[in-house]
Specification:
The protein is an alpha+beta fold. The protein has helices at residues 13-20, 49-55, 107-113, and strands spanning 5-12, 31-38, 45-48, 59-66, 72-85, 88-97, 104-105, 115-118, 123-126.
């Protein structure tokens, strides 16, 4: 299977909450589209320092992460991050990778949005068994 990328909209979850309370306007919500590597070998969403600088997600934790080259680095964990893909959305935390590292869309947000990798088309798709809304497995 080849390398698969998806256009994901990232939204600052704190800004969304402030907008719902009419503290800030809709136009003040920080959001951006990012072409992310779909990485089923990664658990979490991973953004880089450049994205974090623009989006200003609150830092909620620090975690050690093992990179693909086997190096272990300590990363900030930020959130809430709202992700949107087609008619799907989820809210999660993200690891902040050093510098301008490639952003990764990991297994947890993929599963929560009920999206799949289509092996023939080499793209991320909405689960065809549930085209109108995400279904979460609880067992």
């Amino acid at each position: 299977m080849g390398v698969i990328y998806a256009d994901i909209e990232l939204i600052n979850g704190d800004d969304l909450a402030l907008s719902r309370k009419f503290i800030i306007g809709e136009d003040e919500i920080k959001r951006m589209h990012v072409n992310m590597l779909v990485d089923t070998g990664s658990y979490m969403l991973a953004i880089n320092e450049d994205i974090q600088e623009q989006m200003q997600f609150p830092v909620v934790d620090k975690k050690k992460a093992q990179l693909a080259n086997s190096h272990v680095v300590e990363c900030d964990v930020v959130g809430p991050v709202e992700l949107r893909f087609k008619n799907r959305a989820t809210t999660c935390r993200a690891m902040v990778l050093p510098g301008n590292s490639e952003p990764l869309l990991g297994a947890i947000p993929l599963e929560d949005m009920d999206v799949l990798i289509h092996p023939l088309r080499q793209e991320l798709i909405v689960n065809p068994d549930h085209p109108y809304f995400a279904v979460t497995k609880l067992k």
